[in-house]
Design a protein that fits this description.
With 264 residues, the protein is an alpha/beta fold. It has 5 helices and 11 strands. It has a 7-stranded mixed β-sheet, sandwiched between helices. A two-stranded antiparallel ribbon has the order 4-5. The protein has a two-stranded antiparallel ribbon with strand order 7-8. It starts with 6 loop residues before the first strand and ends in a 20-residue tail after the last helix. Keywords: Hydrolase.
């Protein structure tokens, strides 16, 4: 596993005070895991990664000249956007697909995946946010990028994109307003999921320390090719730049989580 990295950091201007995250950017597995007993076609599906997000994140980081952290492993191995105590951290079944390599799983293997993959990714996120704060002299704005399927269990999802959040509205309100200013877009607010999830990436790195943030989900059929990724990067880059220019989004302010009190 010496040649396998659990993350990739896209270097940018840390003075800019903004960081992008992509928890489910890639569908890779480390050597020795094969395909976890799945058919190889499973790794082209959303169960393995967020389709289109790696390309979109790379484009935005380059256009804005800001750092980004991309997770380097498939969520089928271990989900970086789940807390270490979350029962869905290592999935046994995902969207109807049984994952033989995850069930049964020994406690030692569970801990190995945390130590070798999950924790190094989150350490990279921590280090990138701290570096951005140190070099810019202000609390950075963080945006996490994800994608969702056009339909779920036969039910169409009409949103072109959606903003997920817990209770810190600072980055959410301007992001929603600017996206909704386009009459051709149908933008969801905490759709098709609720953004309050204890110990997930935003909870851990932004809610608890009081960093302004937003999680943006784009429907994957809209960014499934280069043309779509280019289009959404061109749309989002000026929006993110305008948000980043707002001093209010660089203040440290802790909001209570809808999931309950923070651990002492």
């Amino acid at each position: 596993m010496q040649d396998f990295s659990s993350y990739e950091i896209l270097q940018g201007n840390y003075d800019g005070g903004m960081v992008l995250l992509a928890d489910h950017a890639m569908n890779r597995l480390p050597p020795g895991y094969g395909s976890l007993g799945l058919d190889e076609t499973a790794f082209a599906r959303h169960i393995a990664y967020d389709i289109g997000i790696e390309g979109l994140t790379r484009r935005l980081a380059a256009m804005l000249d800001i750092p980004a952290v991309l997770c380097g492993f498939s969520r089928l191995l271990i989900d970086p956007n789940r807390g270490e105590d979350d029962p869905t951290l290592i999935m046994r079944i995902s969207d109807g697909a049984i994952i033989p390599g995850n069930h049964p799983i020994a406690n030692s293997e569970w801990e190995h995946r945390l130590n070798a993959f999950h924790r190094p990714y989150h350490q990279a996120v921590d280090l990138t946010i701290v570096k951005a704060a140190q070099q810019s002299g202000k609390t950075p704005l963080v945006v996490s990028l994800h994608s969702f399927t056009p339909a779920w269990k036969g039910v169409p999802r009409p949103w072109h994109a959606s903003v997920l959040w817990d209770s810190d509205h600072r980055a959410v309100k301007p992001l929603l307003a600017m996206l909704r200013a386009d009459p051709n877009l149908f933008i969801g607010d905490n759709e098709p999921y609720d953004g309050a999830l204890k110990n997930d990436t935003m909870y851990r790195h932004c809610m608890r320390p009081g960093i302004a943030h937003a999680l943006l989900e784009v429907r994957q059929d809209l960014i499934g090719d280069d043309r779509g990724m280019d289009e959404w990067a061109e749309r989002l880059a000026p929006i993110f730049a305008k948000m980043n220019a707002d001093p209010a989004l660089h203040e440290t302010r802790i909001f209570p989580s809808r999931t309950g009190p923070y651990p002492a």
